Amino acid sequence: MPIPEYLDNWLAPDCSDHNEYKVSGVIECLCGNTTFKVDYLGEEDDQNVCTMQIENHPNPEYNDYFALVINITCTQCARQHTLYDRHQHGWNGYVAAEGKGFPYTADMLHSKSCKNCGKTEFKLQTGIYSMGIADFKENAPERPQEQWVNAFERITVDLTCTDCGHAQTNWLDDECM
Question: For the chain, what are the domain ranges?
Answer without folding.
Answer: 5-175
